[in-house]
Amino acid sequence: MENFSWLNAFKEMGKRVSAEMKELFRGTGAGRALGKGASGDTTLVLDKRAEDAILTVLEELHAAGHTFTFISEELGIKEFGGSDVLILADPIDGSNNARFGLPFYSTSLVMATGGKLSDVALGYIINHGCGDEFWAIKGGGAYKNGIKIKSSDRVDLGMVNFESSVPKRDLVAAMPLLKVARKVRCLGTTALDLAFLASGSTDAVLVPSPSRSFDYAAGWLLVREAGGVVTDTDGNPLDDSTLGLERTRPLLGASNVTLLNKALKALRG
Known about the structure:
By secondary structure, the chain is an alpha+beta fold. The chain has 7 helices and 14 strands. The protein folds into 2 domains: 3-148, Fructose-1,6-Bisphosphatase, subunit A, domain 1 (Fructose-1,6-Bisphosphatase, Chain A, domain 1); 159-268, D-Maltodextrin-Binding Protein, domain 2, CATH 3.40.190.80.
């Protein structure tokens, strides 16, 4: 399948997950824990239902003759016929937001031609709170709802987004950067943090704890295709990071090199 065909498939997955979430939240138990997922994090009912919606589309594609390997936060690794094509999914990024009734969470999907971040060819993110869709095609630009986007050319750290899975640890690591920003936000979904960075809505993104590739791979491509940059917190590129279930490195994204250098300087003290 060509990239644009995978894009159509990802849009269908996003549509089905959105419909599933709306139906699920009419009832009760969306936030009930089911156990540990393949990534080691707790799987909630809402995570499983979202993943099942994605799997339904993948099974239809496989039945039509397409082969690929699927890696997901909950299920782990599933082969659909064996192929160099890798489909990576975070069915719900921002599960705790959804669990507590905050309507701000996303689905993040990636198609790659190999096992490294540099092999990512297509990234897609949907904001289930409002339906906005973001996608990027390697060498083909980044888009929001079909309109090409570009990261900001601002040279001041006016808005910094950060994520904190363990506040007593992560806030200490993040504070040097947060103190030099004019405004800060902790939104609860790394995928949307990076999508907003790509579209010029924020100036920098910091995730001080090591992250898993399905959290950031789609956003990484979005930011790069929009003209921004994402590194680890030492300024090293992430291109050789493995696409899989393990945690890799902490993240620092900026809308341009000038702001990346300012953020790195702040973190280094």
